Amino acid sequence: MRLALRVRSLLPLILAAVFAVMGAQAADTASDAAANNARFDKLGHHMMCACGCNQLLGECNHMGCPDSPGMRTKLAAAITRGDDDNTIFHAFQDEYGATVLAAPMFTGLNRFSWFLPPLVLLIGIAGVFLLVRRWRPQVAAMPARSADPRTRALVQRVRREIEGDTL
Amino acid sequence: MPVFGSFSLLLALALSAYTLLAGGLALRQLATNARSRMAPERLAETARRSGIASFFAITGAAFALVYAAFTNDFSVSYILHHSNRALPGAYKFAALWSGQEGSLLLWAWLLATYGFVLRLRHKVDVRLVAYASTILAGIQVFFLILLNFAAPPFALVEGAVPQDGFGLNPLLQYPEMVIHPPMLYLGYVGFSVPFAFALGALMMRYPGEKWIHITRRWTMVTWLFLTCGIFLGAHWAYSVLGWGGYWGWDPVENASLMPWLTGTAFLHSVMMQEKRGMMKNWNVWLIFSTFLLTLLGTDLTRSGLVQSVHAFAQSPIGAWFHGFMFFVLAVCLFTFILQRDHLKSDHKIESLTSRESSFLFNNLVFLTACFTVLWGTLFPIISEYVQGNRVTVGAPWYNRIAVPIGLFLLLLMGLGPLLAWRSSSLRSIRRNFVLPSIAIASTAIVLLAIGQRPWREEGVMYAFVAFCGAAGVITAIGSEFLRGANVMRTQTGKNLAASLLLLVRKNTRRYGGYIIHFGVVIIFIGLAGSAFNRSTEQEMDFRQSMKVGPYTLVCQDYTQDSNPNYDSEYALLDVYRGGKKITQLAPEKRFYTASQQVSTMVANHSTLAWDLYVIYAGQNPDTNRPVIKVFLNPLVAWIWIGVIVIVAGTGVALAPNLATALVPASQRKPARPASSSLVNQPATLQGGD
Known about the structure:
The complex is a heterodimer.
Chain A: H1 2-44, H2 68-81, H3 85-96, H4 110-140, H5 149-164
Helix pairs in contact in A: 1-2
Chain B: H1 2-32, H2 40-70, H3 77-82, H4 89-94, H5 100-120, H6 126-150, H7 180-190, H8 192-203, H9 210-241, H10 251-276, H11 280-303, H12 318-339, H13 355-387, H14 395-415, H15 426-449, H16 458-492, H17 496-506, H18 508-528, E1 534-539, E2 545-548, E3 551-562, E4 566-577, E5 580-585, E6 588-592, E7 597-601, E8 603-606, E9 610-619, E10 626-634, H19 636-654, H20 658-662, H21 682-686
Antiparallel strand pairs in B: 1-10, 2-3, 3-4, 4-5, 4-6, 6-7, 8-9, 9-10
Helix pairs in contact in B: 1-2, 1-6, 2-5, 2-6, 5-6, 5-7, 6-8, 7-9, 8-9, 8-11, 9-10, 9-19, 10-11, 10-13, 11-12, 13-14, 14-16, 15-16, 16-17, 16-18, 17-18, 18-19
């Protein structure tokens, strides 16, 4: 009897706990769905539609496209299964060829595609610095101009005009 | 008409070949003092007149093709494949550039038009114009050979002539398609003129920098056309392709961007040559590269070398373009090696904190951007050649590599104009940079305060940097205007607005340039908005609603329609905001009868904050209900506004300064009277310098 009373008094607490767990599960499911949607959108924008329309999978808007619906279904299934990005990319690459990825993977020669432009920029910046450093002493070593006040005034006027007229 | 057109093209080829040969011979005789039966001056004059006549011949050919389109002359293969009876008149006119042969004819006609104007205005510098005219004639001969022998626009249909044509590609049946290609081509072809002047000036060892003054307006107008062409193309892609974006890094889009990047670099660095006699080698190669890139762009569009949404223009004439590009490159290299001692700089850079070095950095970034786009465009071919398999280099790659370079350029755009020529003192740097730095910091704080977290996502990080940088650049530009206007106000006693106007009119080039920079910043703001794009898709029944951001869309109707050109399906959607109806949108899907192709007509409600971009994605075959896809794209309108500001800024920069404008033309001193005539001024003919 005492036990039954104790259980009855604990019932609201038990119910609250059950609802809390159910609520948390529902929230988890909802946040999982949102995360999966976001991931689907992200990965869909890293792959191309295989039909040759040259559009990203996430943006392919053909009516009656022979490939994009199937590809989207496969992508959604892979995300639901919990496959990581690389596994999904490799699976799609195996099935549709290397052109299915919207950007080259970081392997082999493809690394050059990523490295080269920033490298060119860095070399260029270093080149400009070196060039200016090399020129600067030459400019500084140039002999002083005439001290004639008329010439000096002219030089100052020209410099003012040059600095004023910039574009 | 086809016979008249073919004959006109042959005549144009003969006249252009004469301009090239006679012009070349005359200039050779003048350079070497060789004697011949006809005086070189007279020979050069016949070449000039022949060049003028070639314009009329090509105009005749272009007219013949347009006439054939309007009269539904399907005996002409080109008209059969690019037009049909039900096609509206404007698109029949646009058929001129809708295919391979027609667009080559458009190219040749625009080149002839530029040449026509140039040859009419030859008195500006007779000898230099004679060189430029001969070089232009050389380019024209190439295009006319293509038109006469490789891609003839007046080829006739074999066998029975069909009653109706196959129609125009539906993607091209959009109002912007009537102006986008001509604009782009005006830009592409226009760069031939500064190229011809630069090569001519180098060949004749032209003294001084006057050739730059002569070509400045040509270059700016050409640049403006190319800019407008690129953005009209972006707007067309946004409105017609229906994927919610305006730039897909398609190889053909890239092909138009590359000469724009080098052309913009040239417009900046050429100022160093004008003002300080520096970077002569660099400038010559910039304009050479720009011209070569316009050829490469055309080659990429035509040859099918890379996969593109512009596949409608593909044909096997790529080999001709490869050959011509190598020939042009060889001529440029040969001339440069022969005359490189003529290109010595008068000055050198004195300080890293100077306007000159900012121009150098600006050029470096422009060229790196160009290299990046070229590398991304060609890498699939390189990969196929080396690895044996083609890869795709698409938007994610460009977003990772090209966008940071663009942001670097944005920051340089704010930094450069704040530095003085030769050297800037630490004090002036501190004074000029204080306000832009405050603007950048304030924008960053505001963005963080309203919940932006740039470290969470790459796109948001780029947008964050773009917004902060834009605030800094706008402040820098604004403070430049205000500083100048205040000085003007002190000098003239006028109010601030009048002083501002006077300031701009007194130095149109400088302040026009600032306005252009302002336009570019606005475009950057618009581009940054794409980091926050949202989209949703839903099947909709009558009275069913859909919520996107602050908008609610209610389906009022969905139905079908038909006309001789196409059948269509569309939905009528009422758009509500805050419970109040603000507009009605009708996204549409068209099925073109002649070409048997489908096209999307996007419905867009554009505001400064965002575009409500609605697509009719099709009908669910099970329920027969329309599937509607909606994008909420923030700040897109800013991009188009930015372009309008750029056009206005270029207009200002092209206008003469107030002081110049007030001097009557008759009283203006000619810049170099000694070279005003070939016949009367032999001294200038015999030695370039």
